[in-house]
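Try this one yourself first.
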């Protein structure tokens, strides 16, 4: 099947979450993503894992199978002159280079954007770091929890009586990865029109600042400092998590007046649609706790099955089963990229480190088997 990005080649130096997730999205849409890692990094990638028992034996399945799916993998030591030379050869065949090393690392290796632009003027070069390539924090190492803290995301998550609470997963890595993928596709579109490549500078912190929705503007415009509101939406809508007679249920009836009226009919509280204190979105914004109490009183008397039964994830094929050459049959996260002509697809699972060395170095670059054997012995690949 022809895919949207099947004519795009990406050299992926990404590690951990943000950039591997970004390039996974590109690979799902057909891009040829070549994962470049040192032997040591490859071993590290396989060293941890999800514990399971198969055929009576305990084993560990390497983590992040889905973030590395649909990719090819080569080993290359960029701290050697030969490794740098080979990477530059690859850049001549590539459309995109991606990395999420600390600021300055690629320049020290002789592989920064300005250097690679001389090798391939059309290259799109994307970086993801904690704080971006410039600013007072740029040279500091950072992780998701710092982005959550500095952006204010941490302070609006949790319950009022409890301390700030981090997101259940590394949310800034996923936001930044998605925004980086979007930026790469945009840069490729621009290059198609102009022939000019460019550099993309993506920051975990920036990705969460924009993810605050209008909460930032509620401070910069209105001077309102928002804090934690638990599972009830800060906007005063009916959205929240409420207890039932046998568990919990998530409710989202929106903030519009039309939806509110329909929701009040379900609650048997038509009177709320006529009460000036609840009839409009502006009025409800200041009565968040009262609205929450009204909904809670209604849900508490009912079992959750009466309100929720959702096969949607299965219908959307958000978990798929595939065969892995080492781990056997695995059920993994599917692709969220639903497109009528070129949908995202899970073609292959994560490659083993160096699995495609021969195909890339000998097939793509045209070097000999003897060259590959020598580089392997010298620790270059």
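Now uncover the answer:
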């Amino acid at each position: 099947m022809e895919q949207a990005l099947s004519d795009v080649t990406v050299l992926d130096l990404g590690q951990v979450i943000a950039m591997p997730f970004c390039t996974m999205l590109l690979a799902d849409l057909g891009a040829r993503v070549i994962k470049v890692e040192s032997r040591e990094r490859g071993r590290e990638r396989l060293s941890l894992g999800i514990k399971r028992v198969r055929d009576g034996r305990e084993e560990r399945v390497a983590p992040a199978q889905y973030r590395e799916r649909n990719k090819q993998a080569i080993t290359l030591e960029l701290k050697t002159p030969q490794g740098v030379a080979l990477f530059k050869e690859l850049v001549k065949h590539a459309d995109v280079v991606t990395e999420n090393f600390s600021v300055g690392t690629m320049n020290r290796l002789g592989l920064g954007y300005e250097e690679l632009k001389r090798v391939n003027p059309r290259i799109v070069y994307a970086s993801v770091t904690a704080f971006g390539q410039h600013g007072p924090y740029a040279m500091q190492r950072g992780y998701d929890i710092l982005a959550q803290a500095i952006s204010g995301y941490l302070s609006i998550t949790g319950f009022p009586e409890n301390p700030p609470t981090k997101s259940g997963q590394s949310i800034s890595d996923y936001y930044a990865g998605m925004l980086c993928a979007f930026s790469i596709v945009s840069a490729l579109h621009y290059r198609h029109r102009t022939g000019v490549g460019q550099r993309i500078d993506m920051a975990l912190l920036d990705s969460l600042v924009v993810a605050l929705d209008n909460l930032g503007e509620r401070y910069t415009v209105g001077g309102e400092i928002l804090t934690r509101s638990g599972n009830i939406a800060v906007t005063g809508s009916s959205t929240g998590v409420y207890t039932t007679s046998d568990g919990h249920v998530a409710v989202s009836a929106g903030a519009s007046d039309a939806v509110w009226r329909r929701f009040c009919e379900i609650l048997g509280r038509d009177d709320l649609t006529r009460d000036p204190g609840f009839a409009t979105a502006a009025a409800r914004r200041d009565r968040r706790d009262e609205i929450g109490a009204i909904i809670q009183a209604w849900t508490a008397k009912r079992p959750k099955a009466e309100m929720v039964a959702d096969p949607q994830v299965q219908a959307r094929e958000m978990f798929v089963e595939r065969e892995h050459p080492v781990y056997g049959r695995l059920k993994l996260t599917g692709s969220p990229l639903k497109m009528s002509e070129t949908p995202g697809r899970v073609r292959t699972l994560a490659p083993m480190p160096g699995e495609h060395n021969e195909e890339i170095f000998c097939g793509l670059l045209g070097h000999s088997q003897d060259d590959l054997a020598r580089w392997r012995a010298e620790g270059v690949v």
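Discussion: The chain has a mean pLDDT of 87. The CA atoms of residues 130 and 250 lie 32 Å apart.
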